[in-house]
Design goal:
single chain; 313 residues; mainly alpha; DNA polymerase, domain 1; hpI Integrase, Chain A; three-stranded antiparallel β-sheet; two-stranded antiparallel ribbon; 57% helix; globular
């Protein structure tokens, strides 16, 4: 089975993003091949118990349900491909009992904390990425991959159509975004317009200062010498800045959640926020921000309670 899976991974190179493929290979070499290889399980001989044993073993080894489900899903996809190829008539990894996944509730900055963070970020080389994530809710790959050609100062719009992804110590730039819905055009806010114009002017001045040592690129998020900011550096710089300012520890990705939470609290609908963030479907948006909408339900319940108290006087 491991030989077939290796061939399948080569096929998947044309189907998924580069960083996703790298993660598939990592999980194959770290977990799947060491388990199934010595057992000499083939695609044709594999049975449900092989995969249940695999999942149970990983659970006993202390891996989280989320990690186990990710690895299992790769095996399941591979065998589904074997069914399509006609090598087997059903997927033997169907009906595996998986450990229950614990839902992650993101931590976010409130409006005051965001102002505090962005004020402190003025001294950081990664400030443009922080501003883009906080104001637009961009993913790290989208912020690092934003190019000046995607910003139209005449129509006041920002086109999200390019990404930068860290994988195995290198950065891959691509016109492929996470999903079709991730391709989106956002309005250029007045404050953001002024910020970006000042940033562009600063970068032009740096280009003159560095001269022939300047690294030419079209990326918005870059160092004074012109080199684009690596996505992993952005996350590291974010964590360091939060520590220095004394803000709660959150992930860089939670700046995206912070922006969306503020929009939700301002009364914008889940559908509007879905399109703003570039989620593939509204279910993702609803599941991610269910804790916020529930707090709104508490306020609604309080109002209803007051209405009933009035009507019963």
């Amino acid at each position: 089975m491991t030989d077939f899976m290796r061939d399948w991974l080569h096929v998947m190179a044309t189907q998924i993003r580069h960083n996703t493929l790298d993660s598939y290979w990592h999980m194959f070499r770290r977990h799947i091949e060491p388990f199934f290889g010595p057992r000499r399980v083939t695609v044709q001989s594999a049975v449900l118990s092989d995969f249940q044993d695999f999942v149970d073993t990983k659970y006993r080894e202390g891996y989280s349900p989320t990690s186990i489900i990710k690895v299992y899903s790769i095996v399941h996809k591979c065998l589904r491909y074997a069914v399509i190829r006609g090598m087997i008539d059903h997927n033997p990894s169907d009906h595996v009992m998986l450990p229950k996944k614990v839902k992650y509730i993101s931590r976010t900055f409130d409006q005051h904390q965001l102002h505090q963070f962005l004020k402190a970020a003025k001294s950081s080389p990664a400030e443009p990425a922080f501003v883009l994530a906080a104001m637009y809710g961009l993913r790290r790959s989208e912020a690092a991959g934003l190019r000046w050609q995607a910003i139209d100062f005449e129509s006041n719009s920002v086109l999200i159509n390019h990404t930068a992804i860290s994988s195995n110590g290198k950065v891959t730039y691509s016109d492929r975004v996470k999903t079709d819905s991730s391709y989106r055009t956002l309005p250029l806010m007045q404050g953001m317009r002024e910020y970006l114009l000042q940033l562009r002017q600063h970068q032009q001045e740096m280009q003159l200062r560095y001269g022939t040592d300047y690294h030419h690129s079209d990326y918005v998020c870059r160092r004074d010498n012109g080199k684009p900011l690596r996505p992993d550096y952005i996350s590291q710089e974010f964590a360091k800045l939060c520590r220095n300012v004394g803000l709660p520890h959150i992930r860089f990705h939670d700046l995206r959640h912070s922006a969306a939470t503020l929009l939700l609290r301002e009364g914008f609908s889940l559908k509007q926020i879905q399109e703003w963030l570039g989620h593939a479907n509204i279910t993702t948006t609803a599941n991610t921000y269910a804790h916020v909408t529930y707090s709104d339900k508490i306020q609604m319940a309080t109002h209803l309670d007051q209405l009933f108290d009035t009507s019963m006087d």
